[in-house]
Please model this.
Amino acid sequence: MAEELHIRQGSKKERYEALLPQIAALLSGEKDQTANMANIVAALKQTFDFFWVGFYTVKEGELVLSPFQGPVACTRIRYGKGVCGTAWKEARTVIVPDVELFPGHIACNAASRSEIVVPVIAGGEVKAVLDIDSSAPDSFDETDAHYLERICKENVICINNVVCIQ
Ligand code: SME
Model:
């Protein structure tokens, strides 16, 4: 079956509003974590043309690189390290307007200027994080946080300690 994303022009809010039901439809009936993470990051990349968008999954006490779109990236991030490790440790969304001002920021790519990281929480634990990088400063705000949190929350179920995005 052909899958097609309809990208709405308009404000950031309008584009997220159009995107959310399409992500739900894309994931509908599919429980494979890799497949679903892959389609979420592809849909976000296609809609907003972010510099880098991807998941890191908690595996054996570390964040491990998972489906992403963009340049090659760091494969493992430790608990509490960088923006991703901070979002994991604090179980909250972290918005970084200027990566150079975030102590401990991990520069996987020198072109990244601002970043948002949203935890995927299931069963009261962070199971993964969604990380988005922009090549422009100050690209992310509360609108991004709101909708990205909804994407992570509304599409997650947890089975046997494994994040299944559906
Ligand atoms: N900058 C992130 C590392 C991941 S890359 O941006 C893809 C961090 O500080 O955790």
Observations:
- Strands lie at 52-59, 62-69, 76-78, 94-96, 114-122, 125-134, 156-159, 162-165.
- The first strand starts at residue 52 and ends at 59.
